[in-house]
Design a protein that fits this description.
Largest sheet of chain B: 10 strands, mixed
Strand order of the largest sheet of chain B: 11-12-13-15-14-16-17-20-22-21
Number of strands of chain A: 0
CATH topology of the largest domain in chain B: Rossmann fold
Shape of chain B: globular
Strand content of chain B: 15-25%
Number of helices of chain B: 17
Distance between the termini of chain B: 43 Å
Oligomer: heterodimer
Shape of chain A: globular
Number of helices of chain A: 3
Radius of gyration of chain B: 25 Å
Structural class of chain A: mainly alpha
Largest sheet of chain A: none
Strand content of chain A: under 5%
CATH class of the largest domain in chain B: Alpha Beta
Number of strands of chain B: 22
Helix content of chain A: 40-55%
Number of domains of chain A: 1
CATH class of chain A: Mainly Alpha
Helix content of chain B: 25-40%
Distance between the termini of chain A: 27 Å
Chain lengths: ~80, ~600
């Protein structure tokens, strides 16, 4: 729950969506809701800052950041398995 | 506002000089402003902004120096045998030192994005009189990670990460560059701990109005001698991918206005040293009679030129002891000025000059440092005047025989050189991913297409893509790899079948065959999407490495349109060098103008 709330906070500050982040479901496509590639990079960097993780190259794909659910899954994986770098 | 014509200079280390464009005021100078550009794609997007800022500063009585860091833009590369911990910051120092040699009393530095970070490393040198940090990167590492992620999100096939280099879109970062950039951290230290006088006693920090993350920077620079303002327009300038960057007029006015406010008004005369051309030694593939003592290297000379009635800006690179064969003309690309995609034009110019060719890389009117023909600051990218620019250039560089040129272009300029080559009966043309399908600007108001367009497939109105069936969407999501493979096979099948039908149609493909049959040596290098347009319009289906008399076609399935991945640029450079050296080397007997004209 805490992870999801932190993700929502990051999205609120960086994603520049056309709707309120509180109205998002876990599966809503963030790119369809106005998040640009550049905004998604800001989201990625802010998530790394917030959770103290680093997304490895294989996770740097649009689909990792396309919804709250996919972001939560990636963060959870990184928190369980710390990255080498 | 008309743009001032700068004085071009080379300065800094002799073995790897920096290129600069010094804009001078018409009145005694009240100070010099050194403009530090960003890196990578951001450098290309912000070029026009810096030209306009420099021009505006001259109207306020300042001299403004635009420059390229070594291994970027028109500057020469860092030498391989020296490991430089702070090469970019040293380049800023070289630029500051250079303007000080002109006798100016006051010096300010303006840096955008990473340029601001490099400028801020002034703390180890003599502080300057004023500093503008324009949308700086909080850390260098965040810049590198962000650029890398952008490329991967957009599906650009940049090389995998390795220890040797970092492949960013249009910019290959060496390990030493990466180390230097990664070490930049404007957030280091306690908030408000930047001491007065560290950078300068006058600092302007410009942050993005829409970016929350900048609050850390704001805290860090919360000091009496730092003025902070929010600026608009940075996303429209830098956060573009396939779109056009928009010059941030408000940001330019803010920077110029603040400098006008804080810098002294008393003026002094400047004495600019004459460094308008440079001679360097470049490795050559084979020893030649005109090579430098020791063999295997060639002395080449570079200088700025202003060409034709429009005063197009270009840089000429030639062997010191005289060249031979056709003049190689490289034409600026839509979003990249005369340096070409990822500096490909710079590297090819120097490499070909080392083999004895005279080369010129130009900005078409309204782009880079060339003025627009009708006085406008911008020019439609597919304007017919760009074709006139190429023709004017050939007349200027080869007045006795304008057709004795080999033309190089990518995307929009790939198209422009094909049109020009047909008009000129050019010796050769190397077209990379030429953009032949677009809405001609002259048709926007309902007029006919210009008669001079013979390769253009006009787009009258954009059509929306047909919606895919739900089952196809589901399959693509469920089995992405399989879908990609099937899609590629389907694309090949459609391409082949349409090519057979299209072989008999008139269009760019047919024109290309006409051009080659008339004696112009044609090298066409395309990705699948661009190749399809030629295949369907008269060229037919051709395999990679297709050669027939004067035509060579290289259809590369993985080629990125803008040549953003480094390996694409390297592959294309190899093909071009092989082709040009094979077709036009000193042993080749050039056809005279009359023979070529007769053939056309």
């Amino acid at each position: 729950m805490q992870i999801t709330e932190e993700i929502r906070r990051v999205l609120r500050e960086h994603a520049r969506l056309v709707i309120d982040v509180d109205d998002l479901s876990d599966d809503d496509d963030l790119f369809r809701l106005g998040m640009t590639s550049h905004a998604s990079v800001s989201v990625m960097l802010a998530l790394e800052d917030a959770f103290g993780v680093e997304f490895p190259e294989q996770m740097l794909r649009r689909r990792t950041f396309e919804s709250i659910g996919s972001i939560r899954q990636a963060i959870s994986e990184l928190l369980v398995t710390p990255s080498d770098g | 506002m008309s743009l001032s014509r700068p004085v071009t200079v080379w300065f800094g280390p002799e073995e790897s000089s920096l290129f600069g464009a010094l804009h001078m005021p018409a009145v005694p100078t009240r100070g010099a402003v050194v403009l530090c550009p960003p890196l990578g794609r951001e450098y290309a997007y912000s070029h026009s902004t810096f030209v306009q800022l420099a021009s505006q500063l001259t109207q306020l009585g300042f001299a403004a120096l635009r420059f390229d860091y070594r291994s970027t833009g028109d500057s020469f590369d860092r030498t391989a045998d020296r490991s430089e911990a702070r090469g970019f910051a040293d380049d800023v120092k070289h630029a500051v030192d250079f303007v000080r040699t002109t006798g100016v009393a006051q010096v300010a530095v303006v840096g955008m994005r990473l340029g601001a970070n490099f400028a801020s490393v002034q703390r180890d040198t003599d502080p300057v009189d004023a500093v503008v940090l324009w949308d700086p990167c909080p850390t260098g590492r965040s810049f590198l990670r962000g650029q890398r992620a952008l490329a991967l999100f957009a599906g650009v096939r940049v090389a995998d990460e390795d220890a040797a280099t970092l492949d960013l879109p249009g910019f290959k970062v060496s390990p030493e560059m990466a180390r230097e950039i990664s070490g930049l951290d404007l957030l280091a230290g306690e908030p408000g701990s930047v001491e007065a006088g560290t950078y300068s006693n006058k600092v302007l920090l410009l942050t993005r109005s829409e970016r929350v993350a900048d609050h850390k920077l704001v805290d860090r620079f919360d000091l009496p001698h730092v003025v902070r303002r929010e600026v608009k327009g940075q996303p429209e300038l830098l956060d573009v991918h396939d779109d056009w960057p928009t010059v941030p007029a408000e940001g330019i006015a803010t920077v110029a206005g603040w400098l006008d406010e804080v810098m002294p008004r008393s003026g002094s005369e400047m004495a600019v040293p004459n460094r308008s051309e440079i001679t360097v030694e470049i490795p050559s593939a084979e020893p030649s009679p005109s090579a430098a003592p020791g063999g295997g290297t060639m002395l080449i000379r570079e200088r700025a030129v202003w060409l034709g009635p429009a005063g197009l800006f270009g840089i000429e690179t030639e062997p010191v002891l005289g060249g031979f064969g056709p003049v190689c003309v490289f034409v600026s690309v839509a979003n990249e000025h005369r340096i070409g995609p990822g500096r490909l034009w710079v590297q090819l110019s120097r490499r070909l000059a080392a083999e004895g060719f005279r080369c010129v890389r130009i900005d078409v009117s309204g782009f880079g440092d060339s003025p627009a023909r009708d006085g406008r600051l911008d020019q439609p990218v597919h304007s017919i005047s760009a074709i006139e620019d190429v023709l004017d250039t050939t007349l200027a560089v080869s007045p006795d025989d304008p057709g004795n040129v080999v033309l190089f272009g990518l995307c929009s300029s790939g198209y422009q050189i094909l049109e020009a080559a047909l008009s000129l009966s050019a010796r050769g043309v190397c077209a990379l991913n030429p953009s032949v399908k677009f809405p001609p600007p002259e048709m926007a108001s309902g007029g006919p297409m210009d008669d001079r367009r013979r390769f253009c497939l006009p787009v009258i109105r954009p059509r929306s893509a047909p919606r895919e069936p739900r089952a196809v969407i589901w399959l693509k999501r469920r089995f992405p790899t399989l879908a990609t493979k099937l899609g590629r096979s389907e694309q090949m099948l459609v391409w082949r079948s349409r090519s057979v039908i299209g072989h008999y149609r008139n269009g760019p493909g047919r024109r290309l065959l006409d051009l080659a049959q008339a004696g112009t040596d044609v090298l066409l290098i395309c990705g699948p999407a661009e190749m399809q347009l030629f295949s369907e319009s008269g060229l037919g289906f051709v395999r990679r490495g297709y050669r027939k008399e004067h035509l060579q076609v290289e259809a590369i399935l993985t080629l990125d349109h803008g040549l953003f991945p480094a390996r694409d640029r390297e592959q294309v450079a190899d093909l071009i060098l092989d082709h040009v050296l094979g077709e036009f080397h000193r042993d080749a007997e050039p056809a005279g103008p009359a023979e070529r004209e007769a053939a056309h």
